[in-house]
Amino acid sequence: MSNFSINTSKELLNLGILEDEVIYLDPEHFDRAVEISNQVNTEEKRWQTYLNVLALCSFEEWLQGAASDLSIQLDYYSVLQSPFSNELTALSYLKVGEFDICLIVTENLTDEAVLLPSASIDSPEFVTHFYVLLEILEEQEEAIIRGLLRYDKLLNYQQSVNLLAERQDNYKLPLFFFDSEPNHLLYALRWLSPTAIIPKVSGLQTSKQLSQIHQPVKDSQPVIFGQKATRLSDWIQNIFEAGWLTIEDLLDAKVLQRTIVWQASYRSHDRNHEDEIAELINQLISNTNKFQQQKAAKRLGAIAKGNDSAIQALINLIQTTQDDEILWTAVESLWQIAPGNPTGGVRKVQLIDLGMLVARQTVALAVAIIQKANQQFGILLRVYPTGDEPYLPANLKLVLLDNSGQVLREVPTRESDNYIQLRFNGQQGEQFSVKVAIGNASVTEHFEI
User: Fold this and answer.
1) Which of 126, 131, 398, 433 is the most exposed place for a label (fewest CB within 10 A)?
2) Domain finish residue from 316, 340, 364
3) Is the dihedral of CA 332, 334, 340, 344 positive or negative?
């Protein structure tokens, strides 16, 4: 039985949860911590060992309740052996799936920063994919997950601010740098590849070598403002970078709501639509009225799933229309009735920074690309709410930037918007950036067509 205070499904992850994850400690947790810590001679080390064991117990308890399908590998007695040559540290280690996790254990989080041994960042043999800050409240019999930090984000921060080790070879990390939403860790464990955070390098010996592989230095890798850019034309060749997911994956996991993603998908299964489908196809072929063509294409997306004639009619419309409004209406309908059909281009979704925390909720950025005539590509950008939230937060903006950082277009949310979008055309090799912003907070993703 799970003992943490936030209700989470064992199968689905609810992104609407943005409170502290409080894990209640059981008597067996304390018994295990006492048993193991009693093997330590000095009082100070014994107490830290005691806390480290409680951290492992509580974190395992939380993972088993929040994501029971993830495999957990840990050894409680490993806390008796520090991986470093200096004193016993306030760190505990475990493995979840293919990811290594380091728990930073504290019993009194009053400072604005936490200490992390420099070797845990600088020495490749001690580096982990995630660093999780866990506060142990022994008297209250509680543990609280206070934040998490991805290694690649930590490395970028170390380089950008020239972070130097302080006393006793420790780095002092400000609390604001930790992601306060534990569900982002769950998403990463489910959807990311470990090599997206720590790339595999044979013969890796130094932290300098490790940092270099995070920097976009290859000629074949598009770069904008010194940051790695996603090459969208690769998607047409079924080449994708880690972190880009399918709409279907997120719909099945209830990260995105089907009724929001598919605006026209009110399908009826209790009657035959063959006559209506035939009439709609005829309208697509014979009617030159833009509004009527859009209406017919949209309706086909609602009632013609798997219908070969409707699929071919939409394919023909996509390949022949010169009108972008009709094009994207037909593309969206094709996505619904024939998912994966190559004529509909490619669409992927990224939980920005594993879901960008804005206005106490998370949003997802969907990007679609379709190849058009005359070496042109059509691009669709769309931002969706996630979890149980039906609407995007107020005053959120989707901003399109050119390769010099100048704003090309900007779309703000209005009241009760369940998505916002931008569409444009470009040629292969053109670069642009997309910013999702609210107030002073923003996340920018870079792309090359």
Assistant:
1) 126
2) 340
3) negative
Tell me the pairing of strands 441-448 and 230-231: parallel
Total domains in the fold of the chain: 3
Distance CA 277, CA 203 (A): 61
Dist. CA 262–CA 247, nearest whole Å: 11
The pLDDT tens digits for 146-176 are 888 888 878 766 665 555 555 557 777 878 7
Q: What region does 323 belong to: left with phi over 0, alpha with psi -120 to 50, or beta?
A: beta
Predicted confidence (pLDDT) per residue in 404-449, tens digit:
889 999 999 988 888 999 999 999 999 999 999 887 778 888 999 9
Whether residues 154 and 231 fall in one domain: no
Q: Which residues face 116 on adjacent strands?
A: 171
DSSP string, 394-409: TT-EEEEEETTS-EEE
User: 424 near 400, Cβ under 8 Å?
Assistant: yes
The model carries a pTM of 0.54
Tokens, residue 430: 């053109």
For residues 370 and 287, membership in a common domain is answered with no
For the chain, the first-to-last Cα distance in angstroms comes to 49
| Two tokens, residue 392 | 């995007």
199 is written with which tokens? 């790339």
Count the neighbouring beta carbons within 10 Å of the beta carbon of residue 3: 16
Other CB atoms within a 10 A radius of the CB of residue 139 amount to: 6
Q: Residue 45's domain is classified under what CATH number?
A: 3.40.1350
Pairing of strands 230-231, 227-228: unpaired
Q: DSSP label at 429?
A: T
Provide the 8-state DSSP code for 54.
H
Question: In the structure, how many helices (H) and strands (E) does the chain have?
Answer: 13, 19
| C-alpha distances in Å from residue 297, one per residue of 181, 186, 316, 421 | 41, 38, 11, 20
Quickly state the pLDDT bin for 206 (edges 50, 70, 90). very low
Q: What are phi and psi of 416, to 5 degrees?
A: 65, 40
Considering the domain boundaries, does residue 171 fall inside one?
A: yes
Mean pLDDT, residues 296-311: 91
Q: What burial class does residue 240 get, using C-beta atoms within 10 Å of its C-beta: 0-12 exposed, 13-18 middle, 19+ buried?
A: middle
Among the listed residues 80, 315, 301, 70, the one whose alpha carbon sits nearest the alpha carbon of residue 185: 70
CA distance 434 to 398: 7
Domain identity same for 98 and 237: no
DSSP string, 251-306: HHTTSS-HHHH-TT-----SS--HHHHHHHHHHHHH---HHHHHHHHHHHHHH-TT
3-state secondary structure of 386: coil
Tokens of 194: 């470990």
The answer to whether position 425 is within a domain reads: yes
Sign of the Cα pseudo-torsion (223, 219, 243, 315, in order): positive
Mean pLDDT of 65-89: 75
Q: Tell me the residue range of the domain where 96 lies.
A: 21-196
